[in-house]
Design brief:
alpha/beta; Collagenase (Catalytic Domain); 185 residues; binds zinc ion; 5-stranded mixed beta sheet
Length: 185
């Protein structure tokens, strides 16, 4: 009984707030993958956030820092890691578009599926590619929360990617070096 108690206590909570899409298979796959590889309990929520409030009409895009700000208000005092998983085109003050954004050593992050859909590039939908890219971007942004910076190893998910080709090339998980540095204990 005690060992079960301690085991439960040591699991970190990672809340994923999905917004603007309902793909239960994708969400279930994400939850299972993360829980099998990291000491996290993943909880899924449908977001109540009004994403239109961060829409920028001139750019026809959504402002990711304000999504993080929303999470901050929503997560106030909550010790869990929390990610908004959205399906809209994101930008921030530095980049014309971003796949995601995260607080370094913080708890909050956002990832967008928008530019991860294969049909955007080839006209053909590919679910496996979407799953793979989405998971990589989730691990990447979560890695920043866990204190990881960009890694030069192409086998590592913490490598930067400025195109989907680069997301496809890089590894799907942290290299040994990054994993050891990650704050997951
Ligand atoms: Zn990064
Ligand atoms: Zn690495």
């Amino acid at each position: 009984m005690f060992s079960r108690f301690f085991k439960k206590k040591s699991r970190l909570v990672f809340e994923i707030e999905f917004l603007g899409f309902t793909d239960s298979i994708l969400l279930k796959t994400i939850k299972e993958d993360i829980e099998s590889r990291l000491p996290f309990e993943v909880r899924l929520y449908e977001s109540l956030f009004d994403i239109e409030s961060v829409f920028n009409e001139e750019r026809n895009q959504f402002y990711s820092p304000d999504i993080i700000k929303h999470l901050l208000i929503d997560n106030n005092g909550n010790p869990a890691f929390r990610m908004a998983l959205v399906n809209v085109d994101l930008f921030n003050p530095v980049f014309k578009y971003v796949y995601g954004e995260a607080q370094l050593n913080g708890k909050l992050s956002v990832v967008s599926l928008f530019r991860l859909h294969e049909e955007l590039y080839t006209g053909r939908a590919d679910y496996n590619i979407l799953f793979s890219r989405t998971l990589k971007e989730i691990y990447h942004e979560l890695g920043h929360n866990l204190g990881l910076v960009h890694c030069l190893n192409w086998d590592c998910v913490m490598h930067t990617s400025t195109s989907v080709e680069e997301i496809d090339i890089k590894g799907g998980f942290y290299c040994d070096n990054c994993y050891q540095k990650a704050n997951i204990t």
